[in-house]
Amino acid sequence: MATLKELAQKEELFSGGHRLCAGCGIPPIVRLILRSTSAGIVATTATGCLEVGTSIYPYTSWRIPWIHSAFENAASTISGVEAAYKALKRKGNVEKETKFIAFGGDGGTYDIGFQALSGALERGHSFLYVCYDNGAYMNTGIQRSSATPYGGNTTTSPAGEVVPGKQQWRKDLTRIVVAHNIQYVAQASPHNWSDLSKKTEKALKVDGPSFMNILSPCPLGWYTKSEDSMGLAKLAVDTCYWPLYEVDNGVLKVNYKPKEKKPVADWLKVQGRFKHLFKPGNEGILKEFQERVDEEWERLLERDGKHM
């Protein structure tokens, strides 16, 4: 794996000057991923924050061949590009090694784009799909997605006197992708650059599809300060709300085990989208949230080092 100094010296393929919010988790995710391979890269991006913030005509932040896909079909787009590349390579028209990456938010991955993603994984195209998970449809007004945490306040799951935020637990997309029996699946966080870079290198070496689900702090939708984003990402991992793990050739490995697992309330209470949970009467929701996080963490530990 490349050192931080080596990564910093690589050519910048994602330029500054974009319109993504201060403190957004997406830019450091994309920059590090693009720096984690020496091969050429072709990328596509589903409609969402990343697309809107980096490609307002006539400007672009992308210094690689890049395609804007519709909300629902980033995986289909990258599948077609990869298939065309293989055809050209068979004919001897292309020699350069090229990697293919699709980026999508949780709305365009967990929900609208899941059918296209599942199909591309089943067909076995060689590409990396990266989901930047900020927990809602942030680009269109902070509506709930199936990635929105239990109890989260969004414009379509508002916290009121009767209904205290979203009533459903977050869909475990990483486990769903693992069930497709592809070679490499991982969960990562932008605060841990070495883990994210190492996982990207592994994912891009796969001959077939790979998938990474990456937590992406959103000051706008989480109602937090921009400068706190990386600390919040770390706290999500230290509370085990967002465990760092990978499934490589069917074997699950937990990549980080906190020496002292912090209560999930520590992560929730610093986000405005959960402030209602700390009002009298909502203690049961916090208790249920902690129990679910504990249950999922124990499930991972039980499977650590084992075939799924």
Descriptive report:
With 308 residues, this protein is an alpha/beta fold. It has a single domain (4-303), classed as Rossmann fold, CATH 3.40.50.970. The chain has twelve helices and eight strands. α2 (26-35) crosses α8 and α4 packs parallel to α6 (114-123). It is globular and about 70 Å long.
Overview in brief:
By secondary structure, the protein is α/β, with parallel strands linked by helices. The protein is 37% helix and 14% strand. It is globular and about 70 Å long.
Number of domains: 1
Radius of gyration: 19 Å
Class by SSE composition: alpha/beta
Largest sheet: 8 strands, mixed
Mind sketching the topology for me?
Blueprint: H1 4-9, H2 26-35, E1 40-45, H3 49-54, E2 66-68, H4 74-90, E3 98-105, H5 106-111, H6 114-123, E4 128-133, H7 173-178, E5 184-188, H8 193-205, E6 210-215, H9 219-222, H10 229-238, E7 245-248, E8 251-254, H11 264-268, H12 283-303
Parallel strand pairs: 1-2, 1-3, 3-4, 4-6, 5-6
Antiparallel strand pairs: 5-7, 7-8
Helix pairs in contact: 2-8, 4-6
